[in-house]
Design brief:
There is one protein chain. With 287 residues, this protein is α+β, with helices and mostly antiparallel strands. It folds into two domains: 125 residues, Triger factor/SurA peptide-binding fold; 95 residues, Chitinase A, domain 3 (Roll), CATH 3.10.50.40. The chain is 59% helix and 13% strand. It is built from eleven helices and six strands.
Length: 287
Amino acid sequence: MKRTILAAAVLALCATGLYAADKDKSVAVINGKKVTAEELTKKLWWQHAAQGLSELIDEKLLLEEGARLKVKADPREVDARFDALAAGYPDKAVFEANLKSVGWSAKDLRDLLNRQLTIRATVIAAKKIAVTDADAKAFFDQNKDRLGTPEAVKLSQIFVASRAEADDAYELLSTVGADFSKLSALKSTDANLRKNSGSLGFISRGMLLPEIEKELFSLKAGQYTKPLATGNGFSIFKAEELRAAQPAVFENIREELKTAMLNQAITQQLPVLTAELRQKAAIEIVK
């Protein structure tokens, strides 16, 4: 989302000519020849103008339809989404500085979120989308087997570049009784493994290559594998904890299912509604 906001803002700045005052400013120099801001602006405009204009027309039509239907975004949801984006930054000042660097303000972002949620509500209202408990239960019954929590193992890993290093680590574990987490923090070539003392967290069945998975899910808690070839190196894995598969319980995931089904219906109906609105609209492209 951060990258989307940044890209959109940069395109907006270029396309609307806010760089016009500095059109002769160099943005790059290639073999002594300048690439000017004006060249960049024109390039971005011709590459993205058609798509951007089409999306803007769609947005205007959808917002007009929302106004006709007297649909509005829920301010609490706007606040929640805004806060979720801000939470991805160390503090408010960094968040606002990031927005300011591309010409945006907190208000601009809130306005964007408000428009997005208004359009979402418009599609729901115009297409009379609703997901009931009965709908969710029917979906649950048809997909119960894949909605459960699969068997999982909590893993730690030592990863090194060569077979010799892996064999040395295995010998320290099996003969000296070295502490697995400390050994990973000391010897692993992967920075994240060193930082987390080898911890990978829970890995569910079906996430790994079959040959690796077979080895890992045959372990008992506290056991570790022999050195295995993985990627461009060798690994030793330790099973810290085993978690049995858990069947899905409808009451526990009912709301999550309803939200997912609603989102899917909105995604399907959005282009349908947009096409209908375009058919009824008088649109003139000024060249």
